From TrEMBL:
<keyword id="KW-1133">Transmembrane helix</keyword>
<protein>
    <submittedName>
        <fullName>ABC transporter permease</fullName>
    </submittedName>
</protein>
<keyword id="KW-0812">Transmembrane</keyword>
<keyword id="KW-0472">Membrane</keyword>
<feature type="transmembrane region" description="Helical">
    <location>
        <begin position="43"/>
        <end position="61"/>
    </location>
</feature>
C-alpha cells in the first residue's frame, strides 16, 4: 500500500519502521521517476536502522551468553 494513501498520523508511524522507508523509496523509484540520488537518503536511514539493530542484538546476545 503506498505511503501517500496513509493519513498524516499513520505516515509518521510508518516512517518509524524500516519498512516505511523502503516502501517510500520504492514508490519514489517507480511512481515519481526517481533515481539513485533520490533514494540515497532512504538507504542511509535503512543502514542506520541496520547498524542500530545489529548493535542491540550483539549487546543482548553477549549479555545472555555471559550471565
Amino acid at each position: 500500500m503506498p505511503i501517500e494513501s496513509f493519513s498524516p498520523a499513520l505516515r509518521t508511524v510508518a516512517f518509524a519502521t524500516p519498512h516505511g522507508w523502503a516502501n517510500d523509496a520504492f514508490s519514489a523509484l517507480t511512481r515519481r521517476g526517481g533515481d539513485l540520488l533520490t533514494v540515497l537518503p532512504h538507504l542511509g536511514v535503512r543502514l542506520g536502522f541496520a547498524v542500530a539493530l545489529f548493535a542491540l542484538g550483539t549487546w543482548r546476545l553477549r549479555r545472555a551468553v555471559t550471565t
